[in-house]
Amino acid sequence: MVEHRRAPRIRVGEAIQVTNAITGEIAGRVGNLSLDGMMLVANRPAREDTLYQLSFNLADDRGRMHTLEIGMHEQWTESANVPGQHWVGLRFIDIGSDEQAVLNAWLARSRQTAPGT
């Protein structure tokens, strides 16, 4: 399979809960992450072409947790293989420099430890 995305996606090995930063509701969990977006595994479909403010935690190289709150734009939503679950593709549209640095470091570490790398 040929990858056509701008940035390679890293599959997440642990459950990373995602929260709607506006409502406080759990939106789902991270399926995969890249420099410019993520796939959310959600219990309901996202609204088409909608902007979201979502937050989740990532650990740094010392194991300290950092909360990333990121503005995202829904790109696509489809039913997952599990009944009641949906895959939601989101593009990052607003991320602070501190959050970007945490994400970049997490992605770099995850690439080094991914099987087959």
SSE order and pairing:
Layout: E1 10-11, E2 17-20, E3 26-33, E4 37-42, E5 51-59, E6 65-79, E7 86-94, H1 97-113
Antiparallel strand pairs: 1-3, 2-3, 2-5, 3-4, 4-7, 5-6, 6-7
Feature tags:
117 residues, mainly beta, Thrombin, subunit H, six-stranded antiparallel beta barrel, 15% helix
Could you explain how this protein is built, in words?
The structure is a single chain. This protein is mainly β. The chain has one helix at 97-113; strands spanning 10-11, 17-20, 26-33, 37-42, 51-59, 65-79, 86-94. It has one domain (10-107): Thrombin, subunit H, CATH 2.40.10.220. It has a six-stranded antiparallel β-barrel. 15% of the residues lie in helices and 45% in strands. It is globular, with a radius of gyration of 14 Å.
Strand-and-helix sequence, N→C? EEEEEEEH
Overall SS class = mainly beta
Largest sheet: 6 strands, antiparallel, barrel
How far is the first residue's CA from the last residue's CA? 17 Å
Low-confidence stretches: none
Percent in helix: 10-25%
Shape assignment: globular
The share of residues in extended strands comes to: over 45%
Number of strands: 7
CATH homologous superfamily annotation: predicted glycosyltransferase like domains
Strand order of the largest sheet: 2-3-4-7-6-5
Number of domains: 1
- Radius of gyration over all CA atoms, rounded: 14 Å
CATH architecture: Beta Barrel
Average pLDDT, rounded to a whole number, is 91
CATH class: Mainly Beta
CATH topology: Thrombin, subunit H
Number of H/I helices: 1
In short:
By secondary structure, the chain is mainly beta. Helices cover 15% and strands 45% of the residues. It has a 6-stranded antiparallel beta barrel with strand order 2-3-4-7-6-5.
